[in-house]
């Protein structure tokens, strides 16, 4: 005879979990809404304070171009962040890829884009390879790569200034940037939401050990994430060359921090996981771009903008931390 | 009221809790709880998962702040600031999970935070610390632990005893034990019981939280039952019996029993999984076994005998130093976890929260995780609809208590988390399930459901390996039982009515 349960199971637990789950969903919703309202607020604020200069066509175009490069980089970085890598190498790799692309451009201008992408891709594979074979945490590998990339960019940049071949000047066109954005956005969205690459990486970020115990080939999918990130950085390298017309020692400097700030502003957790959404990248980039542009138009000292950026970073992380405090307290109590 | 012989000496309770409330986000974890613990009393605290036991204990020990309510120690009101603060007032707690610090020695762990008691000229004296540690370890009957050894060299069971020593050094008047016996084997448990008895003899009190009802029956003078954060009843010694406790815990009558009622091993001759001469470090030494179609193979032994590592080897996530694991229908040697998944093996780890599920991901994400390949075959991409269907289907068939598949797993009770951990493998049509302590720390209702499920799977021709540290479960469910001792197979029993715990225990120790 089997154990039979006479009455209906207790409904309390069900109701409790419903309440709790709702409150979490509400807090996630709140985050997205507050992001949107924040964006609206700063747009209105700067429009008023600069007497409409921020919403002039020329300025909107400028902001658009700035945003596109950040969004493309952010989309790639979301893949590595989703499994828990805070990747500091982006800027260094961008500089390095741009340098490689520009050098190849001396041979033939058509080589620039492929070489940029290839350089980013190879670096991605290299970083993942170092992490997997030596078990050095990806954040450290990324930091080391940042220094290497910056070093190479500086060494080459000090010797000669690499200019964009004149035959490519026609590409410095709004539609070119926009096409790249759309292509990357569609591919990234499909990969992130509808294939194993995105799903496994998010699972790894949620719980690396559980992912391993579920038979997911961790190394392979980490490499995929780094390859995707590398390719997008390569594209960013090409686009930033188009924009500035050359590669110098400043190319890519600070890019990694901008991307990370945007990801956090967009609501991504720095430990990765299934809650990361690609649309957060776009929201984050728009907020940061509008804010920084507004401050410049307002006439604030460029150096103070760095301070603002730092404070913003802290506030955003602090806010999202506070909202999850109830959870972490609960996480701590094993029995409940 | 519930005062035992020793307690009658003094009518002032050692600890009194009045009108205690605690709410997490929107869940009422503890509701209007009143509780009095007297000198010399061993008080049990039981309840299903999520009934508020741990929360209440944590409040008493100062690890959590209550929303409202008052506490009195020896009649004096107090509101604790921290665990240390409460410890000074004579109340100490040992938690189920939170343990020792791994880079320190045993003695350093014991004296954590009270190094000044063994200092000389302002410097901590290692020698003094080790001597004092040895003394306290002897007092609690754990003299086999070397206080100078690094905590990493000490077994998990002994680490729990080190925690006990840590707390007993303060000579607490009230000791709160929050499910600490779950992680212990019989030998370790006996040691804990002895410590509890000594506390009682010297007129001190213990609040003993456990899932193990026979243990409560054996140890406690009185037992308080919690349900949904409220005190249902406090049973006195004569009223404590398993049926009574179960009934009060779940709020309904449970009729019958958990286990299989037949006493014949039933499985087919076809071998589905073969483990050949597997060795791993010093943990496993040449283990060979065969699993048949439709068989429920129980593997038992003491915690450290290698049974848990064996599971990981069979699933391919630990590479053995020698030997092999082969799945026969596919004739494939398992070299990695993804090999195992491809061969339709499922693995449910012992540590549910850290290894079995992704707590911060949704139920859906957890359930479909290993079945993505199956979903891709239908179309090129993994669509939301196919994910939702699979997750809903599984959640429904296992009756996971939830309101939506998009709900996060972190808020589910232990038993429902385990259902999620099981259902992800059922979603992938696993033919072989490796279950490591499948009913660890889950309440009676879900336990019964898991046993039922195992029987259903067996009937459907699937094979199950159940690793367990609980003998009644092994004897009650398995077609065959294999016992491991020091990484070697020491016993092999077939299901029969004559098989008793004592015969099996002999092979374990």
In short:
The complex is a heterodimer of chains A (336) and B (509). By secondary structure, chain A is an all-alpha fold. Chain A has 13 helices and three strands.
Could you describe the 3D structure shown?
- The complex is a heterodimer of chains A (336) and B (509).
- Chain A is mainly alpha-helical.
- Chain A has helices at 12-49, 57-82, 90-107, 112-134, 138-159, 174-194, 196-206, 208-213, 218-244, 255-265, 279-298, 302-323, 325-332, and strands at 4-5, 162-163, 246-247.
- In chain A, helix 6 (174-194) crosses helix 7 and helix 6 (174-194) runs antiparallel to helix 9 (218-244).
- Chain B is of the alpha/beta class and 509 residues long.
- In chain B, the strands form 5 sheets. A 6-stranded mixed beta sheet of chain B has the order 6-9-10-3-11-12, sandwiched between helices.
- The radius of gyration of chain B is 24 Å and the shape is globular.
- Residues 1-9 of chain B have low confidence and may be disordered.
- Strand 1 of chain A pairs antiparallel with strand 13 (254-255) of chain B, so a sheet runs across the interface.
């Amino acid at each position: 005879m089997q154990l039979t349960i006479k009455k209906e199971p207790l409904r309390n637990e069900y109701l409790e979990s419903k309440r709790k789950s709702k409150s979490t969903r509400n807090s996630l919703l709140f985050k997205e809404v507050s992001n949107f309202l924040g964006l609206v607020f700063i747009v209105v604020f700067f429009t008023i304070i600069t007497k409409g200069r921020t919403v002039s066509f020329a300025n909107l175009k400028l902001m658009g171009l700035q945003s596109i490069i950040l969004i493309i980089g952010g989309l790639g970085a979301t893949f590595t962040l989703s499994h828990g890598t805070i990747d500091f190498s982006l800027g260094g790799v961008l500089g390095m890829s741009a340098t490689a692309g520009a050098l190849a451009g001396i041979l033939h201008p058509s080589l620039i884009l492929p070489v940029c992408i290839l350089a980013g891709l190879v670096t991605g594979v290299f970083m993942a390879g170092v992490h997997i074979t030596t078990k050095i945490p990806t954040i450290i590998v990324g930091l080391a790569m940042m220094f290497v990339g910056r070093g190479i960019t500086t060494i080459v940049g000090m010797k000669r200034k690499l200019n964009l071949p004149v035959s490519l000047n026609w590409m410095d066109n709004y539609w070119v940037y926009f096409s790249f954005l759309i292509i990357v956005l569609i591919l990234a969205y499909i990969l992130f939401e509808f294939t194993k690459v995105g799903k496994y990486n998010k699972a790894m970020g949620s719980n690396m050990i559980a992912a391993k115990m579920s038979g997911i080939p961790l190394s392979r999918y980490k490499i995929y994430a780094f390859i995707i990130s590398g390719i997008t950085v390569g594209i960013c390298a090409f686009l930033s060359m188009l924009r500035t017309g050359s590669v110098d020692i400043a190319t890519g400097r600070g890019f990694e921090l901008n991307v990370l700030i945007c990801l956090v502003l967009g609501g991504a957790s720095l430990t990765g996981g299934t809650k990361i959404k690609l649309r957060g990248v776009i929201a984050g980039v728009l907020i940061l771009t509008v804010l920084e542009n507004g401050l410049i138009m307002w006439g604030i000292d460029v150096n103070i903008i760095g301070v603002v950026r730092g404070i913003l970073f802290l506030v955003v992380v602090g806010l999202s931390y506070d909202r999850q405090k109830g959870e972490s307290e609960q996480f701590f109590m094993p029995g409940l | 009221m519930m005062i035992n012989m020793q307690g009658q000496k003094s009518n002032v309770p050692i600890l009194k809790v009045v009108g205690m409330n605690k709410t997490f986000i929107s869940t009422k974890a503890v509701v209007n709880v009143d509780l009095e613990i007297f000198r010399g009393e061993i008080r049990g605290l039981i309840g299903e998962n999520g009934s508020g036991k741990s929360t209440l204990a944590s409040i008493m020990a100062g690890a959590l702040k209550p929303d409202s309510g008052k506490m009195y120690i020896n009649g004096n009101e107090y509101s604790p600031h921290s665990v240390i603060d409460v410890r000074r007032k004579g109340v100490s707690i040992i938690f189920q999970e939170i343990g020792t610090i791994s880079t320190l020695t045993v003695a350093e762990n014991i004296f954590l935070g009270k190094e000044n008691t063994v200092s000389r000229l302002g410097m901590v004296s290692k020698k003094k610390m080790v001597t004092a540690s040895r003394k306290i370890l002897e007092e609690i009957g754990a003299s086999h632990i070397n206080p100078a050894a690094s905590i990493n060299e000490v077994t998990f069971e002994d680490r729990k005893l080190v925690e006990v020593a840590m707390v007993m050094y303060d000579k607490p008047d009230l000791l709160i034990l929050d499910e600490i016996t779950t992680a212990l084997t019989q030998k370790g448990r006996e040691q804990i019981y002895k410590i509890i008895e000594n506390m009682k003899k010297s007129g001190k009190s213990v609040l003993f939280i456990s899932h193990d009802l026979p243990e409560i029956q054996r140890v406690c003078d009185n037992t308080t039952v919690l349900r949904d954060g409220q005190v249902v009843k406090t049973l006195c010694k004569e009223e404590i019996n398993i049926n009574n406790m179960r009934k009060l815990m779940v709020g309904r009558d449970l009729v019958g029993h958990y286990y299989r009622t037949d006493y014949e091993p039933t499985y087919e001759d076809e071998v589905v999984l073969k483990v050949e001469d597997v060795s791993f470090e010093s943990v496993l030494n040449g283990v060979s076994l065969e699993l048949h179609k439709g068989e429920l193979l129980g593997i038992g032994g003491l915690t450290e005998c290698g049974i848990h590592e064996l599971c990981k080897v069979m699933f391919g996530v630990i590479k053995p130093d020698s030997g092999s694991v082969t799945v026969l229908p596919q004739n494939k040697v398992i070299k990695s976890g993804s090999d195992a998944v491809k061969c339709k093996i499922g693995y449910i780890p012992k540590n549910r929260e850290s290894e079995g599920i992704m707590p911060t991901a949704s139920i859906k994400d957890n359930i479909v995780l290993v079945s993505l390949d199956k979903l891709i075959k239908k179309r090129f991409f993994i669509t939301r609809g196919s994910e939702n269907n699979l997750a809903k289907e599984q959640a429904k068939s296992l009756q996971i208590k939830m309101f939506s598949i998009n709900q996060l797993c972190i808020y589910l009770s232990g038993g429902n988390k385990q259902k999620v951990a099981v259902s992800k493998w059922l979603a992938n049509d696993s033919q072989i399930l490796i279950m490591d302590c499948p009913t660890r720390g889950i309440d009676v209702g879900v336990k019964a459901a898991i046993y039922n499920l195992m029987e259903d799977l067996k009937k459907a021709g699937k094979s199950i390996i159940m690793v367990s540290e609980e003998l009644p479960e092994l004897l009650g469910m398995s077609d065959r039982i294999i016992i491991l001792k020091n990484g070697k197979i020491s016993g092999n029993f077939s299901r029969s009515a004559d098989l008793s715990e004592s015969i099996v225990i002999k092979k374990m120790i």
